[in-house]
Amino acid sequence: MSFTRARVPMMLGTLLAVSLLAAGCGSGDSTPAAGGGGLKDVLSSKSPQPDVVQAAVHTNVGGGARSVPVDRLVSVTADSGTLTSVVVSSKSGSVPGKLSADKKTWTAGTLLEPDTAYTVTTQVSADGGPSVRKVTRFHTAALSLDQQTYPSIAPLDGQTVGVGMPVIVRFDVPVTDQASIEKHLHVVSQPAQKGSWHWLSNTEVHWRPASYWKAGSTVTVNADINSVPAGNGIFGQLDRSITFHVGAAHIYKVNMKTDQMQVFSNGTLLRTLPVTTGQQPAYTTRSGTKVIIEKFPSKDMNSETVGITGADAYNIKGVQWAMRVTYSGEFVHAAPWSVASQGHANVSHGCTGLSTANADWLYHMTNVGDVVEYTGSNRPMDLTNGYGDWNESFKTYAEGSALR
Fold it and tell me: Which of 198, 206, 250, 333 is catalytic?
């Protein structure tokens, strides 16, 4: 019997069908004989493969974004997998940041600079899947100088000041969102002392402790306002930090009725000095707590600068050992022309006059920030005429905070 080539496959298919039928019927035992190699063995030998987790990540600035606000706090989130590396960089350096404990989120520690190109380079990995590197770029909005406010701080870094010195932060462009800025102003003292900010205007804010600084304190001021909204489309321009020191507790007590100044240092009375103060009623010296604002070994004093003209006008060159206590022109200084009146009568135009020797001695022991407490007149000192911060109770003073 002969077969053509065309019929061979057909016969092989028939034989295979018969073989499968025989394997499927019989005693009812579905387990094939050892080495039987049935179809079920072939299928069951292929184990199911686990799904591969693909790592994925996104940022809150968007790839290629332009004009990103400078107060945006960049964050990177792993939608699947975990973050192994995040670098946010510009030409000026890298932005610091912190990775969450579960390594799912990275958050920047600072805000952004204006008109700056940034690159976000992220590495994320997933169990069972490949590590993924993603690069995102964005650019921040440009700001003019009129849209940025710069802080200056007093005292100066490293300066030693008196126990009455307030912390002063001034801004070159007005701040209307004072609460936003104040949240980023911090004063830390060693030893710790309770205190409060007080806004004198939209360009000046002061901080003072509840009572005079403790002698020997070290104080650090941080103005972390860079790119912080200041209101009306204005942002902070720069972070600044200074540290100053507080010297001995120098408190000078002037009694305008007895014309005497008591000079105390750390609670000890060093000397009682005869003085003269403003003649009344025309030039009455203010009562209240004043603070040494600035010092001059020699100062020209022209009454026209404080509005005194006519018969009472004066223009004295080279007044020695002059220490300013008000913006309106009150000084403590040497007044050799009034020595005969010192300790007896008030004959000045508002300043506190001493002999040259006494003024010299006092000048050289005094720091900016030392306290001069005046009593004996009915003309009060106010908060803004110099460093008048101590002329309100602390409770009232703290009401000047934008965060009260």
Answer: 333
